[in-house]
Fold this sequence. Notes:
The chain is of the alpha/beta class and 338 residues long. Helix content is 33%, strand content 25%. A 9-stranded mixed sheet has the order 14-13-12-11-7-10-9-8-15. Helix 5 links the parallel strand 5 and strand 6 (117-119).
Amino acid sequence: MPVSVAIVGAGQRGLQLADQMAGSERLRLAAVCDVDAERAEAASRRLGVPAELDHRRLLERRDVDAILISTGARWHAPVALDALAAGRHVYCEKPLADTPATARRMADAAAAAGTVALVGYQQRFTPFSAALAAELPRIEPVQALLTAQRGVMNPQYFFPDAYGGIGDFVTHTIDMALWTMGGAPGGVTAHLRRGTITGDRTIEYLSLILDFDGGERSATLVTSMLGIRVTNLVEYIGGKGTLWTTDHRTVHVHTHPEIHEAGNKPPAGLESRTVDCPPGGDTTRASLEHFAAWAGGDKPAAAPHACTFAEGANALAVGVAAVLAAEQGRRVTLAELS
């Protein structure tokens, strides 16, 4: 049977989630909810399902198995915590919350509830991400360089919080770095720039370094909305090889045994090949289907793509730590934010 869901937040993203569910055999839309009555009614008419103004009314309904949250970030927690307390599964848009402490509280509540609680980092579901998951263990990554240059963002992203401005965009890259490097970093150092586009305090560029294992491994992220959208680089250097791409389509993989000899020459046993990935497109549908399969009791044997609330809390904490590190001129640990 399909998982019956209600969408909380009937704005642009909420309607996009509903559109992605259309025709799904795993998901059935039961209701929509928004505190804005006009918006709720418009979504109800468009989608052909009942509307509510209070998300708590949804939790009284027996035909709602799961809640999809697409409100603004500061309202994620109240909805998610109520839904988890009521034993519902939760799919929450990113970022998980507006503060690391709130996000951690959500992650703890999800663990205590024992229901499925995932964050909508849909980029994990692209063919490129599948290639990373398959190839990276072979090179044992030590360093990563991920760039995310995207050009000027739309007006609704111009606000000063860590998850506004370029922070809204780089959160996907942060999540990718944590996922591929195997967990949360010990600390973050960073630089940023604010306010030169519109004169407000919006973060326009962010360069950050995440350190893992006491600094033995690291990931460098460079992201900006200054200038124009340009080609982005993904590069992993490992103890047993290198992986890189500039288009997220053709992945160049070079593997070799560990190097224990000085000299400017190719490593002994070097093997090089390319992995061609089909176009990724919008993978929101794949992310939702994965959530539904798990919520319906059909958890994949290996679920490498699912972003749990705990992982989502780490991604948010890294973004906040980066802003603090840049403004205070020091390394900020995630432990400080817990």
